[in-house]
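INFO  loader      accepted 1 record
INFO  loader      residues=415
INFO  predictor   begin
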Amino acid sequence: MFETERVEKLMLKKDKTKEKNCLFFASDYHFEMISLPYINKSIKNNKEVIVISENNLENTINKLLLQVNLEDDEKDKILKIDWKNNDFDKFKEIKEADKEKRNTIVFIKGKENYIKNLFNSYKVNEIEASLFNNYRNKVTFHIFNSKLGFYNSNSNDLVEIDNCLLLDKDINNLIPKIKTLDLTNIKEIMIRKAVFNNEILMSFKGNINKEKLKEFGKENNITSLSLNDDVIYGKSYIKEIINNLEYTINKDSFFQVNTTCMIKLYDKVKEYAKKGNNLLDLYCGTGTIGMYLKDSYKYILGVEENSFAINSFNINKKINNIKNIDFKCMDASNIKIGDFDTVVVDPPRSGLSKKVINNLLNKKCKRIVYVSCNPKTLYKDIKLLEESYKVISLTPFNMFPKTKHIETVCLLEKE
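INFO  predictor   done
INFO  writer      dumping tokens
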């Protein structure tokens, strides 16, 4: 199976990092960093190691023992956590335990520890999380030789799957039904789920009997079904409902893949943004954050250079009858900051441009709420912004459990 093969390959990778005292994450679905010599050295020095698995705990441990040189008494010291049962509380208890009483080794590079070490001079709140399994509301399956699955990392080898622990259960339930179709000439299938409104969108790429595909859509209560960009059954979109707000989502819309954790993140943005007169929402995308804050500010201006995203934003604005939000389709670097109480920024992984940072420094607002998908660029940017602003608080969000990725929300206020 793909995940097992990936584990075996990754366990043999050499650690190219220079970090010391690393914690490592071992699971059947993802390895963030691997350093077998470091593990051996840690064991000999009685450092902590925790082996965490989300699929087959004993299988994971056996793979580890094949690769590291342990004495029998050392093997017994490995602490085991079955992640499949969402045993996150147990993991937190272990991290807080008295290390002098432990003779285990730690085999996890915890996201929370990473954030706290990176931002060690700031106030960092506990990591926020929601579901650890079945959290993804979107997936793109690839098809090769009528087999449905994912391509192996850095290769063209497709590995067939029947189920994925990360996917919403309704998406998983569709997999065996999709396999009853003639997929000979299908290349790709994308599925999206409106978690709180129980609607499903499916998009097929390739050639297939259109009438049979329509029948498939009808039998499985598919809300939106398209073939090669043409809607052949139902509507062109699905609708998600969050806190009495309706969001239309089509096959190309950007929408966070973890809906429940997204709500927690937006609640934190709302808390940090407080209330005021004018708010500027830079890199606003389809306007989900601006809409979420509509009752906190008298006027909100969203700025986004992607015209498709702005069109979706305007549709959602109209559906929800929101009067106090406007949008401009332009580069965030070119907007004049003006007299805004608060600026919310949600930039790409590359972070804020130099021009945006200079604009924020020259036109000091009361506060900045920075939503980041890359802790390293967040750190770089806030160091520059500290010329005029003070970092008040950071909150990390485990938006993508069992991967290395993490979102962080940071509050900065005018000095």
